[in-house]
Amino acid sequence: DGAAPAEVASLAREMAGSILAAIRANPWDAVNYSRLLLALHLESVLRPEAPELSSEASVGPIAAGVARTIVFLAPPSTLAHRAMGGYLLGTGDKDGAAAEYRQALALDPSLVPEVARHVLDSVPDRLWVDRVIPGTAPAQLRYGMFMEETGEIARAEIAYSASLKAEPTAAADLRLHGLYLSTCRAGEAQQVAARALAGTEIPDPAERAELQYALSRSSLRTGDGGRAVEALEAAVQGAPRRVFYAHRLASLLANDRPCEAIERWVAILDAYRGAADMPEMRAEIYLGLARAYEKEGRTLEALREYQHVLVDRPDDSSVLGRITLLMRGDQ
User: Fold this and answer.
1) What is the pLDDT at residue 251?
2) How many whole angstroms separate alpha carbon 34 and alpha carbon 292?
3) Going by C-beta distance under 8 Å and a sequence separation of 6 or more, which residues neighbour residue 297?
4) Residue 53: what pLDDT?
5) Dihedral sign, CA of 185, 191, 196, 200?
6) Three-state secondary structure string covering the chain
7) CB 120, CB 126: distance < 8 Å
8) What is the pLDDT of residues 108-154, one digit of tens each?
9) Roughly what angle, to the nearest 10 degrees, separates helices 205-221 and 170-182?
10) For the segment 18-69, what is each residue's pLDDT rounded down to a tens digit?
11) Between residues 105 and 14, which one has the greater pLDDT?
12) Closest alpha carbon to 215 in 235, 201, 200, 199
């Protein structure tokens, strides 16, 4: 409408800023990239110092450069690499796209599931998707979690192993341990936990305790009860979730040594009264005590502990049923 080129260029810059905000909110919306391309093209052609450019001749090169421009407009550059990866994938340059996605994911591994889903939708080839994920420990760990969630157990195992090869971490060890347990490979799970605990120093007491608990679970599955008890004993020492681990240990002992389990549960209630995880574990501890007392034939004590459970679980039908049976004298 007769507006000067400089004014149009200024409006185009404002438009680019608005579109960029939309891209931040939804990086996968290809329409927004097209709009940004147009806005940047108008701004570059119409600003006073710009050389004359034919629209037909310049659209291709500018499209290829849009993502690079975003780097300067909106750091961090993960956005630019993702945009460039999408553009190159659209042009059929799978190698170039993979390289761009790898750079984005190396900068922000938390994007692995999102990028993997998007790429799989565009190129349903899991072997090619593997090339998109960088070999860093955090990226491979996230990729393993994504593969496990989608049922690709073998690929998840490969990714977890790659993560551990790049950098041993308790998080990857725990994921691999859990994968082995869920696929009935308790022996391999036990080896993973034992190796992790015997390897490099684990400065985080919570992570070390989680590995000890993992070792106890896999040891139980392999029939190594003694090692399971030892691992849980170690987990209790100084762990933030000490009530949980102490309860698990008492539960383990209750099968064959109910008297010792009772002593441990009573000690837990006394020693960890103010522990952070006591409120969420209290009902479970009273329930364990009640069952152990029942096993020992101590009906009054069992009834007392079942009543304690009802304080936190007033509608627990199984507990109410046990109370009814004990009060009637039925076992």
Assistant:
1) 92
2) 68
3) none
4) 34
5) negative
6) CCCCHHHHHHHHHHHHHHHHHHHHHCCCCHHHHHHHHHHHHHHHHHCCCCCCCCHHHHHHHHHHHHHHHHHHHCCCCHHHHHHHHHHHHHCCCHHHHHHHHHHHHHHCHHHHHHHHHHHHHHCCCHHHHHHHCCCCHHHHHHHHHHHHHCCCHHHHHHHHHHHHHHCCCHHHHHHHHHHHHHCCCHHHHHHHHHHHHHCCCCCCHHHHHHHHHHHHHHHHHCCCHHHHHHHHHHHHCCCCCHHHHHHHHHHHHHCCCHHHHHHHHHHHHHHCCCCCCHHHHHHHHHHHHHHHHHHCCCHHHHHHHHHHHHHHCCCCHHHHHHHHHHHHCCC
7) yes
8) 999 999 889 888 888 888 888 898 999 999 999 999 999 999 999 99
9) 20
10) 776 776 677 666 566 656 665 655 555 555 444 433 333 333 444 445 545 5
11) 105
12) 235
Nearest CA-CA partner of 259 in 213, 286, 295, 226: 295
Distances (CA, A) of 143 to 27, 133, 175, 247, 288: 20, 7, 12, 34, 39
Per residue in 155-201, pLDDT tens?
999 999 999 999 999 999 999 999 999 999 999 999 999 999 997 67
Closest CA to 308 of 285, 326, 327: 285
Predicted structure pTM score: 0.72
CA 305 to chain centre: 37
What rounded mean pLDDT belongs to the chain? 82
When mean pLDDT is compared across 93-97, 206-210, 284-288, 312-316, the lowest value belongs to 93-97
